[in-house]
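ok so for the tutorial part 2 we go from a plain amino acid sequence to predicted C-alpha cells. step 1 is just haveing the sequence, like this:
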Amino acid sequence: MYLLLILIMVASAAVQWRLRSKFKEYGQVGLRANLSGREVAAKMLADHGIYDVQITSTDGSLTDHYDPTNKTVNLSADVYNERSVAAAAVAAHECGHAVQHAQAYSFLKFRSAMVPALSAVSKFMPFILLAGIFMIRTSVIPLGIGIALFALTTLFSFVTLPVEFDASSRALAWMDRSGVVTTQEHAGAKDALRWAAMTYVVAALSSLATLLYYVSIFLGGSRRN
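step 2 — the prediction. this is what the C-alpha cells look like for a chain of 225 residues:
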C-alpha cells in the first residue's frame, strides 16, 4: 500500500511537470485567428446562445475555472490576454463547463450538488481520521466515520472526471466548427487539454489509494478488537 501511494505521488509530480511544460510550449504558439483567451471565451459563449455568463481575469497560473454559483468564467491573466493555442484551449474548456451548466449536464449537476456537503465535511474530516487512528485499539467507530466521509471526497474526484473530459470534448469540437484553430493548432490544443485532464485522473487515483489505506487500517483494527 505504501509503495502504491509513493508511485501515485511520483506520477502526480510528473504529470504536473508535464502539464506546465506543455502549456509553456503551446503558450508560445500564436493563434492564426489572433484571438485572445477572453475573445475566444466570448465567441464560444455567444455561439451557444449564452449571454448571462461573465468572463473575468483572476490571479495566478493555471487557476482557470468556471463558477456555476455566479456564472463566471474565470481565466488566469495569461490566458485572458494571450493569443496562443494554450490560451484558446483553456478558455474554450472553461466555457465548455458553462455550456454544460446551460444544458443541465447530469454529472455537473451531481458534482455541484455535492459541493456544499463536501465543504462542510472537509473542515473536520482530517481530525476525525486522525482521532480514529489513535483510538483504533479501543474502537473502530471513529475511523469508520472518517472513512465514510473521505469516501465522499473520493466519489467527488471520480465524478469530476467525466465533467472535465466532456468539457474538453465540447471545447475541441467547437474550435473545429468555428474555425478558431487550424488543423495543426487543434492538435496542440488537444494535447494540452489531454495533459490537463491527466491531473484529474491522478488526483482521483490518489484519493482512492488513500481511501484504501484507511480501510486497511480499519480492517486491521477490527481484527484486533
